[in-house]
Amino acid sequence: MPLSYSLIRPILFRLNPEWAHHLTLSGIRLAHSAGLSILYAHAPISDPVELFGLRFANRVGLAAGLDKNGEAIDALAAMGFGFIEVGTVTPRAQPGNPAPRMFRLPQAQALINRMGFNNEGLDVFLRNVRRSHRTVPIGLNIGKNASTPVEQALDDYRLGLQGVYTHADYVSINISSPNTRNLRQLQSDTALQALLKGLSEAREQLRQQHGRNVPMLLKIAPDLEESDIDMIADQLQAHGLDGVIATNTTVSRDAVIGLDHADEAGGLSGAPVRAASTRVISRLRLRLGRSFPIIGVGGILSGEDAVEKLRAGADLVQLYTGLIYRGPGLVRECAMALAREASQGRASRPAD
Q1: Is the pLDDT of residue 267 over 70?
Q2: pLDDT at 42
Q3: Other beta carbons within 10 Å of 317
Q4: Helical ranges in the chain per DSSP H
Q5: Beta 54-56 vs 49-51: how paired, if at all?
Q6: What is the pLDDT of residues 133-149, one digit of tens each?
Q7: What's the topology of domain 5-341?
Q8: I need a labelling partner for 187 at 20 to 30 A (CA). Which of 167, 246, 248, 250 fits?
Q9: Taking the complete model, does pTM exceed 0.85, yes or no?
Q10: Closest C-alpha among 151, 256, 159 to residue 199
């Protein structure tokens, strides 16, 4: 029987958020290595779905950012996830932004972070990924180094794609973090076209070299106008991408005005981003049609929140901040809710 997260959370919330993050990740990794994952794990819910050539045991995944270096893949998979995404990894190791850089807003069930793609670099990341037992599909999330000018971003993304290609079940391209200077400029029309064209050409070369096609997805921001969402949707299809992840964190503070830490720079996640994320998903589904895969992420703190993403047009969902506030039981709750929704036939996508 897993330990009650409600007993553990008050202790973790007395710690600096970043320290608590590292302590939790190290703790579950050690527990899993010692054969004690029963202390935090739940049996996975069976709700199989196939997308972009992969089979997912259920529709609930872990979002990138929680395990940046891929060091706890097996331990996290034991929570009952249908898939795991790790990273963001950059070609070269980098420390990220100065601390403090992560802040809790408990009244809003939210976090603000400005971590800045802190990670140990591609070589360490791949060594960790190779050690995992891969019980579920693994997505590898790639980004650019902070020191790389945005005009040369394609060079870093190519290096990332080449590095992770043979180790990934799918690759996600992160151009939507607000914590790397000018990164979100890559979501603009001309820049996005050049980036996706270059990465599609690089993937084709890798496909021919390795005899294997690895799905490639784009992760986008919630702070987009409808015209921007439409443009991105068109670019995704024009350049042969396999899916989209909607969304990353928001720079808006409308939902947390007046709360402690609300004025901190960085990306806001958790409950306040739920509506914005769902809005982007709905618009993407309208523009992309019925069959293009969408992974919904942002503000999922209950099974009902996960179902909302599915009804808006998502095929799969991902969790991150919800885990911090609700604990591992949220994985099972969301997977069960989505399985019920699918079995009752309400998971059909909106009409074109």
Answers
A1: yes
A2: 77
A3: 30
A4: 5-12, 17-33, 73-77, 122-131, 153-164, 189-210, 226-238, 274-288, 303-312, 321-326, 329-343
A5: antiparallel
A6: 999 999 999 999 999 99
A7: TIM Barrel (3.20.20)
A8: 167
A9: yes
A10: 159
User: How many residues does this entry show for the chain?
Assistant: 352
Could you give the CA distance from residue 7 to residue 262 in angstroms, rounded to a whole number? 27
pLDDT at 348: 47
Coil, strand, or helix at residue 172? strand
At 139, list the tokens.
């997505």
Rg (alpha carbons) of the chain, rounded to whole number: 19
- Token readout for 314 is 């998502």
From 309, 303, 314, select the one nearest 336 (Cα to Cα): 303
Which residues have a Cβ under 8 Å from the Cβ of 154 and sit 6 or more positions away?
Answer: 194, 195, 198, 199
pLDDT band at 1 (very low <50, low <70, confident <90, very high): low
Of 178, 205, 10, nearest to 88 by C-alpha is: 178
Reported as half-sphere exposure (CB side, CA atoms, 13 A), residue 220 has a value of: 33
pLDDT tens sequence across 87-142: 999 999 999 999 999 999 999 999 999 999 999 999 999 999 999 999 999 999 99
177 belongs to the catalytic site: yes
Q: Using alpha carbons, list the distances in angstroms from residue 5 to 1, 66, 147, 308.
A: 12, 17, 39, 25
* Beta carbons of 128 and 196 less than 8 angstroms apart: no
